[in-house]
Write a structure and sequence with these properties.
Blueprint lengths: L17 H28 L2 H50 L10 H40 L16 H12 L8 H10 L13 H19 L1
Helix pairs in contact: 2-3, 3-6
């Protein structure tokens, strides 16, 4: 039997794979488009406040991860320097034992103290950077909360600010006729009927005050760290 192929070997039909690959590519692109559309619909269902809270939470987690990675990198650098120093000390001891070069005088305690001070400086710098990032995030949150419209803006505030109400009270008092003299018993009844102002519940404790207090605390920490 001959090992050479005959002339009709080139006419054998071969399966075309390019069509299947194009179909697979089109299917993958359609799946990606559908997933993106679902993700957009899911994002549209979430409120803006929730998205801002999630963004700030992820931002804080990212900062914590960066701080952790910086600490690990610093530890690796310190271990590497200690390893290099130990290798050098071992070589020096071997040279002394072999009668070679005499080692120079070294203050090991001073070097360790310098390393500790450098580590503390690096830690303080990292804490300073973290406080700066937190301060910027708090400022952004404060700006978004100040620009956010309140759902009950048409309702009058129940907090007694003493600005417009004081003018109205003075105007109404000026229009009233002079009151008749009252006895001590009527004064006692009126004083007992009034509610003490110190026991009134506090309304309007908004997130803006909390954000301002947090910014003040962060600024104090930043000044103490720097």
């Amino acid at each position: 039997m001959s090992t050479f192929a005959d002339e009709t070997a080139a006419d054998v039909p071969v399966k075309d794979i390019t069509l299947n690959l194009t179909k697979v590519g089109v299917g993958l692109s359609e799946m990606l488009v559908a997933q993106n559309a679902r993700a957009r619909q899911a994002i549209l269902r979430v409120s803006r406040e929730d998205l801002e809270d999630r963004f700030l939470r992820l931002h804080e987690e990212n900062l914590l991860l960066k701080q952790h990675t910086h600490k690990q990198e610093d530890k690796i650098k310190r271990m590497a320097t200690k390893l290099v120093r130990l290798v050098k000390d071992r070589r020096r001891v071997e040279q002394v034992a072999a009668g070679g070069v005499r080692p120079g005088s070294r203050d090991v305690e001073l070097e360790e103290m310098m390393e500790e001070l450098q580590e503390k400086v690096q830690e303080l710098q990292m804490q300073n950077e973290g406080l700066k990032q937190r301060l910027l995030a708090a400022k952004q949150q404060l700006q978004t909360q100040s620009k956010r419209p309140t759902p009950y803006g048409h309702v009058q505030s129940r907090v007694n600010t003493g600005l417009r109400r004081l003018r109205e009270d003075t105007f109404s008092l000026a229009q009233l006729p002079p009151a008749a003299p009252r006895g001590p018993r009527s004064v006692e009844v009126e004083m007992s009927g009034r509610a003490p102002q110190g026991l009134l519940p506090r309304y309007g404790h908004s997130l803006l005050d909390d954000a301002r207090a947090e910014i003040r605390n962060l600024y104090v920490l930043f000044l103490s760290a720097s």
